[in-house]
Design brief:
The complex is a heterodimer of chains A (about 325) and B (about 500). Chain A is an all-alpha fold and about 325 residues long. Chain A has 13 helices and 2 strands. Chain A has one domain: ABC transporter involved in vitamin B12 uptake, BtuC (Orthogonal Bundle). Helix content of chain A is about 75%, strand content about 0%. In chain A, a hairpin with a 2-residue loop joins strand 1 and strand 2. With about 500 residues, chain B is α/β, with parallel strands linked by helices. Chain B has 2 domains: about 240 residues, Rossmann fold, CATH 3.40.50; about 240 residues, P-loop containing nucleotide triphosphate hydrolases (Rossmann fold), CATH 3.40.50. Classes of the chains: A mainly alpha (about 325), B alpha/beta (about 500). Chains A and B meet through helix 8 and helix 9 of A and helix 10, helix 11 and strand 20 of B.
Chain lengths: ~325, ~500
């Protein structure tokens, strides 16, 4: 079983390396430090969202409101990030709080009502978009402070700041999942919710925490995006949830819950980033890129279901 | 002479391996027309693989299956069904939203006219006829989801009859139905026998084999052991054939060191489930809870464990009145519960042996939310060793263990949380004889350590063999509290059907 498990992990890594090799051969610009810096910086927002939704998917849930949370957090933080108003911690705090609150709302409704997470977060997706438009009165919020713009545009010792955030968040999420009681409970709930309950785990509390963590990371992603484009856009983030969920699934997280890793999700997010970057370099039209991306998502799920069938023997 | 026309189903030299592991080796079987042929063996003996080959789900690596003088070579459930081999599954496979009739004729609907309309009137009539035959007094238009497990089983049998099955394979058909329903089922089996239908009957329950089987074939570790007449076979001889050694007595003697009252329950009631349940359990004592299915035993256990708290009444631990609103509170106060539904409520299939064992006690092995892997590993390994859990290693996923070992993992999880009272709900259901004996021995060890144990069981010999005192429930009401020396199977049944 250990073998199949490692094969599954290496399968993703192998496919990823193969694609990188192929692109290096096809285009000389691909395997350069500057291009990789661009790829990882671009990937960082999707990766943050994907880490959050990985927690949720492992518990057997889903969060479709990621993109809207990005917009709300982005607009709200931009509104308090004008130069010479508040110190930079205020917009950061406001952005994170927005994500936390919307995530908490998702968690509350899901645990109290027994409505499927798919439906609840679909509702929140629309509510969130409305909130972002109301907050900004439908207009982009610009004129942001330099300190705030540093988050998405600055660099520490030559490393773009988004990459620093990505690495730190990845390590924290990975440790939470693998080394903490909470992480173990997340797997247990996704694997068999009733057994988890009978083992004395407070299932609702854990689910609540998970949706809040997901919201928090979406808030962070919203801040990052706003800072990068130096504007709070109420229409930003539309469709982001699909790429985040795709990253988790390509990375081996099962939509039926109970399995998944942050490393897998990180590779999934990088894979999506590398492919779109490579197709850009090869001058493939963005219309075709969408078809390629969709096919890869389906392929990853088919692969996953084959492996699951194989391991059930 | 082979194939022999006296036998409807003959199997010779059947072998099957899964990735190098032999599940069956050179297995044989002869089933006569109109006999009830029991197939017995411990979990892992190869019964389910054998069944899957017979029903056409798996292809054997070697060997022959002959049915009515014809060799079956085509691996297809459909083809085997068409020949007349049907299977009643342990877990009923039905479409809950469809009616009885629609389920029976699923895939064989009556259609008419150019537009191929469905003719429900016709299948309802046919289904009504079949239901009369199996003695199920339900309208064929009842949705499947409204039926009890026993009734669904009747429908499955009706379906097998409608397919003109000549051999019906029944995989532990009595594992989830009440004693009364078992009597009905046996009536149907005898009726089918008279019509010349052969039944291949798989069960763990010795007394059933005595009651219903004509002949018994025993498998052990994938090998054929013997085929014997059921009437001339004693229970002990049968167990010896299954485990390959004699188990002198299945129930180890009790040491009888009854201590103080650990748990007492007074007038415990829950609307529609049970009312006025009263008992106490002492340290070092095994209290049995007997009754038919649906008598409210599991509901009492779930109330004590905080899964479905009671409406009224008192629960006291060591004389202190307490309330238990969730499993977490129950565990903290020293109550452990092993559910009757192992797959549903017992373990997390995709987590490892280690992770399942520590699930209820993880906080003990953690500081500020961070798991101390070393303490966790040490403690779970000790428990796995103590319970003799057979797994490749501590990282093996529990879904790949046998039923007995899964049960031990669940038990170990409960024990690692250091309970003072352990409630075991059908602790040996679906567990083979060897593991049963180990679980009984373990229960004795627990009482010797001063734990109070409550055993809920539908197997009366188990209740009588293990328990110091026995509470009998009937339709949610407590009808008796018997001491071991005054309890007999007849007496318990008398109070259980009260």
């Amino acid at each position: 079983m250990q073998f199949i498990k490692s094969l599954k992990q290496y399968g993703i890594v192998g496919a990823f390396l193969l694609i990188c090799l192929l692109l290096s051969l096809l285009t000389p610009q691909f395997f350069t430090l500057s291009n990789w810096t661009i790829i990882i910086t671009q990937v960082s927002i999707n990766a943050l969202l994907a880490f959050g939704v990985t927690f949720v998917i492992i518990t057997g849930g889903i969060d479709l409101s990621l993109g809207s949370m990005v917009a709300v957090a982005g607009v709200a933080s931009a509104m308090v990030a004008h130069p010479d108003t508040y110190p930079v911690v205020v917009p950061i705090g406001v952005g994170l709080l927005c994500g936390l609150l919307i995530g908490g709302f998702n968690g509350l409704v899901i645990t109290r009502s027994n409505i499927a997470p798919f439906i609840v977060t679909l509702g929140t997706m629309t509510i969130g978009r409305g909130l972002a438009l109301i907050l900004s009165k439908g207009r982009p919020v610009s004129n942001l402070s330099d300190a705030f713009n540093f988050i998405g545009g600055g660099a520490v010792g030559g490393v773009p700041f988004p990459i620093v955030i990505l690495i730190v968040v990845f390590i924290v999420c990975h440790l939470i999942l693998k080394k903490t009681v909470l992480g173990r409970y997340i797997y247990a709930i996704g694997g068999n919710e009733n057994a988890a309950k009978a083992a004395g785990i407070e299932v609702n509390k854990v689910k609540m925490t998970v949706y809040m963590m997901c919201g928090l990371l979406a808030g962070l992603a919203g801040i990052l995006l706003t800072s990068r484009i130096t504007t709070g856009q109420p229409n930003a983030g539309a469709g982001f949830e699909l790429y985040a969920i795709a990253a988790a699934i390509i990375g081996g997280t099962s939509t039926s819950g109970g399995t998944g890793t942050m490393t897998g999700t990180l590779i999934g997010a990088l894979m999506i980033g590398v492919i779109s970057n490579g197709l850009d370099l090869l001058n493939v039209s963005s219309y075709y890129q969408q078809i390629v991306m969709g096919s890869i998502i389906i392929g990853a799920v088919v692969l996953d279901s084959w492996q699951q069938r194989g391991s059930r023997r | 002479m082979f194939p022999n026309p006296d036998f409807i189903l003959q199997v010779r030299g059947l072998s099957k391996s899964f990735s190098g592991v032999k599940a069956l080796e050179n297995v044989q079987l002869d089933v006569r027309r109109g006999e009830v042929h029991a197939l017995m063996g411990e979990n892992g003996a190869g019964k389910s693989t054998f069944m899957k080959i017979l029903m056409g789900l798996l292809a054997p690596d070697a060997g022959e299956v002959w049915f009515e003088g014809e060799r079956l070579t085509h691996t297809s459930v459909h083809a085997h069904l068409a020949k007349g081999i049907a299977m009643i599954h342990q877990e009923i496979l039905a479409v809950p939203a469809l009616t009885i009739a629609q389920n029976i004729f699923l895939g064989r609907e009556t259609i008419h006219g150019f537009w191929r309309w469905l003719n429900d009137t016709d299948i309802n009539q046919k289904a009504a006829q079949l239901l009369r035959q199996v003695g199920l007094s339900r309208s064929p238009q009842t949705p499947m989801k409204d039926l009890s497990v026993a009734e669904m089983q009747m429908v499955e049998i009706a379906k097998a009859i409608s397919q003109q099955a000549k051999v019906i394979i029944m995989d532990e058909p009595t594992s989830a139905i009440t004693d009364k329903e078992v009597t009905t089922l046996f009536g149907i089996i005898r009726e089918l026998k008279n019509q010349g239908v052969a039944i291949l009957y798989i069960s763990h329950k010795m007394d059933e084999i005595e009651q219903i089987a004509d002949r018994v074939t025993v498998l052990r570790d994938g090998h054929y052991v013997a085929t014997e007449d059921a009437q001339s076979l004693t229970t002990n001889a049968l167990i010896a054939m299954m485990v390959g050694r004699e188990i002198a007595t299945l129930y180890p003697p009790s040491e009888r060191t009854k201590g103080e009252v650990v748990l007492s329950v007074e007038n415990l009631s829950k609307a529609g489930k049970f009312e006025n349940v009263n008992f106490e359990v002492h340290a070092g004592e095994v209290l049995g809870m007997a009754g038919l299915m649906g008598a409210g035993r599991t509901e009492v256990a779930r109330a004590l464990y905080g899964l479905d708290p009671a409406d009224s009444g008192q629960i006291a631990l060591y004389g202190q009145v307490t309330t238990i609103r969730s499993p977490k509170e129950a565990i903290r106060q020293g109550i452990g519960y092993v559910s009757e539904d192992r797959k549903g409520w017992g373990f997390v299939p995709m987590l490892s042996v280690k992770e399942n064992l520590s699930l209820s006690s993880l906080r003990q092995f953690a500081r500020n939310g961070w798991i101390n892997t070393q303490t966790e590993t040490e403690n779970t390994e000790k428990m796995a060793h103590q319970l003799r859990i057979k797994a490749a290693n501590m990282h093996q996923k529990v879904t790949f263990l046998s039923g007995g070992n899964q049960q031990k993992v669940v038990l170990g999880k409960v024990l690692l949380a250091l309970p003072q009272v352990v409630i075991l709900d059908e602790p040996t259901r679906g567990v083979d004889v060897g593991a049963k004996f180990e679980i009984y021995t373990l229960i004795r060890q627990l009482t010797q350590r001063g734990l109070a144990v409550i055993v809920i069981s539908s197997e009366l010999p188990e209740i009588l063999g293990l328990c110091d005192r026995i509470v009998v429930l009937s339709k949610g009401k407590q009808t008796a509290l018997l001491a071991q020396h005054e309890a007999t199977q007849e007496k318990i049944m008398h109070y259980a059907v009260h």
